[in-house]
Every structure is written in structure tokens, then in C-alpha cells.
Specification:
The chain is mostly helical. It is built from four helices and no strands.
């Protein structure tokens, strides 16, 4: 197990490239030191086989490398898309916050409107108020006519009372004059009775 683990660590992905290169080198040395043509041909075929395996492994590695590059580009693209999505999400969050603030403001305004509507409902509407004002205006006009009528009557009664007082004063003056005349007459009669006849 320890040997396999070391080979895997040395080999990388476990494709056996390092072992193949060592085998290729050994095969090349054997091919160089081969005595017979058949043995050399056999070693030559083994070297070609090992080379084709190495080329195949290298091609596979290049394909994996290209695939990794494309995957990195794809991941970079996905990363940029994710960044754009995050930026868009931040913008949407900011917009939603604005909408929440606006909704709170609208809700506050509606609550204030409801409170004002409740206060307004306790008061009569404009039509009824105008009717009441019109009725009060008519009543005020009627009372003004009554006041003028009462003032006219009061003025008439004042004049009549003045005439009455003047008449009473004249009557009293006449009565006093009559009393004085009667006293003068009585005094003359009394003086005529007391005077001796010649």
C-alpha cells in the first residue's frame, strides 16, 4: 500500500507517465545493446508502443488542460454573472427599501386621514351647516324686524308719554290758575263784605 501511495503521489493523477518514461529509457538502452535483429525489432516495437501510450497520455493531458481552461473561463463567466446578479439584488434591495419607506409614509398618511375623517364625521356636513346658517340668518332677520318694530313702538309710546306729561302739566297749571282765581275772587268778596256801605 505504501508503495502504491508513493507512486500515486509521484505520478500525479495515476496515469503512469513516470513509469512509462522509465520503461522507455530502459527499452531504448536494451534496444541499443540488443545483439540480434529480432530482439532489436521487438525492443523497437515496445518503444513505439510506449511512445504511443505516452503520446496518448500527453494528448489526454492536453485535452484535460484545455477542458480545465474552458472550465476556468466558464467559472469566470459564471462568477461575473453571479456578481452582476448580486449587484442587481443589491439594487432591488435598495429599491425595495425605498418602496417600504414610501409604503410606511402612505400608511402614516392614511392613518392621519382616517383620524381626520373620524373628527370630520362628528361635525355636520357643509350642506347641513349652510341650511342651519340660512335658518339662523332668517331668524336673525326676523328678530331684527321685531326689534325695529319694538323700537318704533317704544318711540311712539315715548312721544305719547311726553304728550301725556305735557297735557298733565298744562292741566295742573290750569288747575293752579283756577285755584288762584278762585282765591282772588273769594278775597274780593270777603273784602267787599267787610267794607261799610256809604
Amino acid at each position: 500500500d505504501e508503495v502504491i501511495r508513493k507512486r500515486l503521489l509521484i505520478d500525479g493523477d495515476g496515469a503512469g507517465d513516470d513509469r512509462r518514461i522509465n520503461l522507455l529509457v530502459k527499452s531504448f538502452i536494451k534496444w541499443c545493446n540488443s545483439g540480434s535483429q529480432e530482439e532489436g525489432y521487438s525492443q523497437y516495437q515496445r518503444m513505439l508502443s510506449t511512445l504511443s501510450q505516452c503520446e496518448f497520455s500527453m494528448g489526454k493531458t492536453l485535452l484535460v488542460y484545455d477542458m480545465n481552461l474552458r472550465e476556468m473561463e466558464n467559472y469566470e463567466k459564471i462568477y461575473k454573472e453571479i456578481e452582476c446578479s448580486i449587484a442587481g439584488a443589491h439594487e432591488k434591495i435598495a429599491e425595495c427599501k425605498k418602496q417600504i419607506l414610501q409604503a410606511k409614509r402612505i400608511r402614516k398618511n392614511r392613518q392621519e386621514y382616517d383620524a381626520l375623517a373620524k373628527v370630520i364625521q362628528h361635525h355636520p356636513d357643509r350642506h347641513e351647516t349652510l341650511k342651519e346658517l340660512e335658518a339662523l340668518g332668517k331668524e336673525l332677520e326676523h328678530l331684527s324686524h321685531i326689534k325695529e318694530s319694538v323700537e318704533d313702538k317704544l318711540e311712539l309710546r315715548r312721544k305719547q308719554f311726553h304728550v301725556l306729561l305735557s297735557t298733565i302739566h298744562e292741566l295742573q297749571q290750569t288747575l293752579e290758575n283756577d285755584e288762584k282765581l278762585s282765591e282772588v275772587e273769594e278775597a274780593q268778596e270777603a273784602s267787599m263784605e267787610t267794607d261799610p256801605k256809604p
